[in-house]
Structures are given as structure tokens and as C-alpha cells.
Amino acid sequence: MDIYIQLKKYTDYSLGLSNEKSKLFYEDTSLNNIIFTNYDLNNSSFLEVNFIECDFSQVYMSGASLCGSTFEECIFKDNVYKKGNSDHAIFKNSNFEGIDAFRTSFYECTFSELTIIDSDMRNCSFSDATFSNVIFKNVNFDSSSFNSSVFKNVKFIDCSFEKLRFNDAIGIESVDFENTNIIIDGETKRYQGNEIKNYF
């Protein structure tokens, strides 16, 4: 079945516009140049799928499973992706803007050559993830975990950290923190440059 037909059927069912039951499940395939805007990916499953130059702008994705999938030169903008699962996924040469990924798991993910800006990533797990040539700007990471993650040429600009965990992180001493807030013992402190590294 054509993917756009399947997306329409699933969206209509998910939004209560159709009584015809529909599931959205793709595994071990490639999807190129697909525009997902205006479709609902709530609780969908895309496992070990290769996404190339796909546009996810304004797509509701809460509860979706993207485990093991690869996203190359994709666009994520104004997405709601709460309580999702992207364990072992690869994101490269892609941009994220205005993402609400509250309590989503990115365990053992790879992020490379990308920016994530103006986003909410509270209570997320980035444990054992790898970050290379990544810029985070104006992102809320409160109560998230970067335990045992690897950092190479990473910047956090105007970000907020409260109860954030960097236990056993590799390369944290080379991370560039700019105008970054972190709450210590209930007091908000703002760090510029290397100052924050003394805390970790």
C-alpha cells in the first residue's frame, strides 16, 4: 500500500474520523523524501527504518517507537514527541526546532552534525548516547540523564539544567557551555564557558 494512503487511513482512525481500525508499522525499510506533515504518528512504530530527506514538521508523534532507525537530512519542527522511544536510533545532518520530547528515551542514540533549538527535553534519557558536532540552544534538560554518553565538539547555549546527570560521561571536559543555567541546592546559577565543568 502506498505510504500516503496508509498515513491517511491511520490519521483518520487516530483522530476518530474513521471507525476502520488501522495500525502504522514499518520495519527494516527505507523511506525517502516523505512529507509527514498533516499526518498523525501517535503510537506508531518505525523500527530500523532509514529515513532520508523526510519532513516531520508539525507532526504529533507522542508514544511513537523509532528504535534502531536512521534519520539523515530530515526536518523536525514543532513536534510533540512525549513518552516516545528512539533507543539505538541515528540522527545525522538533521535539524530540530521546537520539539517537545518530554520523557522520551534516546538510549544509545547517535547524534551527529545537527542542531537542536528551542526545545523541551525534560526527563529524557540520553544514557550511552554519542554526540558529535552538535549544538543545543535554548533547550530545557531538567531531570534528564546523559550518563555514560560520549561528547565530541558539543555546545550547550542558553540551556537549563536541573537535576541533570552526567555520570561517567566521556569528553564532558571539552563541552562548551555558554550562558547555561543549572540549579544547585535550589539556587539558580548561570555559567559561561569552563566554569560549569567544575560542577561536573
| Structure summary, number of beta strands | 15
What is the molecular shape? elongated
Task: Kindly estimate the percentage of residues that lie in beta strands according to DSSP.
Answer: 35-45%
Q: What is the element string, with H for helices and E for strands? A: HEEEEEEEEEEEEEEE
Rounded mean pLDDT score:
91
Uncertain residue ranges: none
Q: What is the straight-line distance between the termini?
A: 51 Å
Supply Rg: 18 Å
SS field, number of helical segments: 1
Helical fraction equals: under 10%
Main sheet makeup: 10 strands, parallel
**Coarse structural class:** mainly beta
Describe the structure.
The protein contains one helix and 15 strands; from the N terminus they run H-E-E-E-E-E-E-E-E-E-E-E-E-E-E-E. It is mostly beta strands. Strand 14 and strand 15 form a beta hairpin. The chain is elongated, with a radius of gyration of 18 Å. The mean pLDDT is 91.
Short key terms for the protein model shown above:
200 residues; ten-stranded parallel beta sheet; mainly beta
Question: What's this entry about, in short?
Answer:
This protein has 200 residues and is mostly beta strands. The chain contains 1 helix and 15 strands.
Write the layout of secondary structure elements.
Blueprint: H1 3-14, E1 25-27, E2 30-32, E3 45-47, E4 50-52, E5 70-72, E6 75-77, E7 90-92, E8 95-97, E9 110-120, E10 130-140, E11 150-157, E12 160-162, E13 176-178, E14 180-184, E15 187-191
Parallel strand pairs: 1-3, 2-4, 4-5, 5-7, 6-8, 7-9, 8-9, 9-10, 10-11, 11-13, 12-14
Antiparallel strand pairs: 14-15
